[in-house]
Structure formats: structure tokens, C-alpha cells
């Protein structure tokens, strides 16, 4: 779904911290909205979205993950939700 909407998506890991059985990754995603995304027709707009993922590992494998991305910011950049101010 994401690569259809933004075939030029690029992910940058800004920070990554590991402690115990958890790894925290702060990332930035950049791309251009060139295809449909969740019913939103292509806008041609360049987007930048940030987020944080916390993953828990056991026996060398990821067993849980919690993710938080700036979905509101994405929808505002696409013009679906008005920006405040």
C-alpha cells in the first residue's frame, strides 16, 4: 500500500537505542504521493512523516512491536485534514 502510494519512499533511521530485550528506532519517511493511498487520490505532494518503533526480542527474533507514526501530520500534508493555525 505504501509503495503503491509513494514509489520513491525513503526511510532514514534518525536514532536507534538498544537496552535489554528492546530496541527503539526513531525514523523519518520521505516520498511523493503518486498513487492512491487509503482512498485518497494522488496529490503529487512531497511528504515527510516521523515515527518511533519499539521492538522486543526473544531468542534472536522480534516477538512484539509498538509503533507510533505522525498519521495526523501525513493527512494534513495530503490536504485531507486542515492544518491548525
State the major sheet. 4 strands, antiparallel
**Average pLDDT, to the nearest integer?**
95
Helix share, percent: 10-25%
Q: What shape does the CA trace take?
A: elongated
Distance between the termini: 31 Å
Structural class assignment: mainly beta
The low-pLDDT segments are none
The strand count comes to: 4
Topology:
Elements: H1 2-5, E1 10-19, E2 22-32, E3 46-58, E4 61-69, H2 71-77
Antiparallel strand pairs: 1-2, 2-3, 3-4
Describe the structure.
The protein has 85 residues and is mostly beta strands. 13% of the residues lie in helices and 51% in strands. It has a 4-stranded antiparallel beta sheet. A hairpin with a 2-residue loop joins β3 and β4. The longest helix is centred in the last third of the chain and has 7 residues.
Search tags:
51% strand, 4 strands, four-stranded antiparallel β-sheet, mainly beta, 85 residues
Please sum up the structure shown:
This protein is mostly beta strands.
Amino acid at each position: 500500500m505504501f509503495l503503491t502510494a509513494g514509489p520513491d519512499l525513503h526511510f532514514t533511521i534518525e536514532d536507534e537505542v538498544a537496552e535489554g530485550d528492546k530496541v527503539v528506532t526513531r525514523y523519518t519517511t520521505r516520498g511523493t504521493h503518486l498513487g492512491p493511498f487509503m482512498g485518497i487520490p494522488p496529490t503529487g505532494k512531497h511528504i515527510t512523516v516521523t515515527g518511533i518503533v519499539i521492538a522486543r526480542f526473544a531468542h534472536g527474533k522480534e516477538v512484539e512491536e509498538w509503533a507510533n507514526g505522525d498519521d495526523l501530520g501525513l493527512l494534513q500534508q495530503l490536504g485531507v485534514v486542515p492544518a491548525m493555525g
